[in-house]
Design goal:
CATH superfamily of the largest domain: Neurotransmitter-gated ion-channel ligand-binding domain
Number of domains: 2
CATH architecture of the largest domain: Distorted Sandwich
CATH class of the largest domain: Mainly Beta
Helix content: 10-25%
Order of helices and strands: HEEEEEEEEEEEE
Structural class: alpha+beta
Shape: globular
Strand content: 35-45%
Protein name: ACH10-like protein
Largest sheet: 7 strands, mixed
Organism: Mya arenaria (Soft-shell clam)
Number of helices: 1
Membrane topology: Multi-pass membrane protein
Keywords: Cell membrane, Ion channel, Ion transport, Ligand-gated ion channel, Membrane, Receptor, Synapse, Transmembrane, Transport
Distance between the termini: 82 Å
Subcellular location: Synaptic cell membrane
Radius of gyration: 25 Å
Length: 240
């Protein structure tokens, strides 16, 4: 009987040890696959060169604004905490998952990857470029790149003397600094801002009433091409 117990203990420990080794090997293989995939994707990759789209036409950038907090309003300048979502597809960032252990996606530092040169017009004559090199991009095997930079936005909101309950309208406008719609076009993820993560109690003096988003194509006097502008409009109610 003691021999039987010792045997069970021995083989039980051995079985557990084999499971632990399998887990370690699995993690090691995953690391190797990620390392191999990163090297393959970055081989001769030029982050300063705009990629080709999958269909050979303009690169379509799907964008959205996630409103997190209404920080404050100072001299008609509204400060917001937001996350700007940008998703596009690049032909030179595709791979076959079966060649890298079934990996369907990888996360890489955003400073390694080409990104759209989107700028934000604050309505007060200033332009802010969307950049946050500390965040990762997520790339899937079909070449879709997803980037979610956190951005503290400032936008001009015109209003007179406010009374309790008054509503004002503000705008955030995003556009490519250099690309016309022949090379880069903007598409909306939704026809409104994402407010599912909004901290409604952070600023008791301003309450969000509604949001709306649309994309317009503008032609400037200098150039025959059109340029896409994504405008996010939102109404706020003042609470004294």
């Amino acid at each position: 009987m003691p021999v039987l117990v010792a045997s069970e203990l021995f083989f039980g420990n051995l079985s557990r040890r084999q499971n632990e080794l399998q887990i370690v090997c699995s993690k090691s293989e995953t690391y190797k696959n990620r390392h191999h995939l990163r090297d393959d994707l970055m081989y001769k990759y030029e982050k300063d060169v705009m990629p080709d789209s999958i269909d050979g036409n303009a690169v379509n950038v799907s964008i959205g604004v996630d409103l997190l907090r209404i920080i404050d309003m100072d001299n008609q300048i509204l400060t917001l905490d937001t996350v700007i979502t940008e998703i596009w597809q690049a032909d030179n960032l595709k791979w076959r998952p079966g060649h890298v252990g079934g990996l369907e996606e990888i996360r890489l530092p955003s400073d390694l990857i080409w990104k759209p040169d989107l700028a934000l017009a604050d309505g007060a004559g200033k332009t802010v470029f969307i950049k946050s090199e500390d965040t990762n991009v997520i790339i899937n095997s079909s070449g879709f790149v997803s980037w979610y930079p956190p951005v503290k936005t400032k936008t001009f909101c015109s209003y007179g003397e406010l009374q309790n309950g008054d509503e004002i309208e503000c705008h955030l406008t995003l556009y490519s600094w250099t690309h016309s719609t022949s090379t880069l076009d903007l598409k909306l993820q939704a026809d409104e801002m994402d407010t599912s993560n909004l901290d409604v109690d952070f600023n008791p003096h301003w309450k969000l009433v509604s949001t709306h988003a649309d994309v317009k194509h503008k032609v400037y006097s200098c150039c025959p091409e059109s340029y896409a502008q994504a405008s996010f409009t939102f109404r706020l109610r003042y609470v004294a």
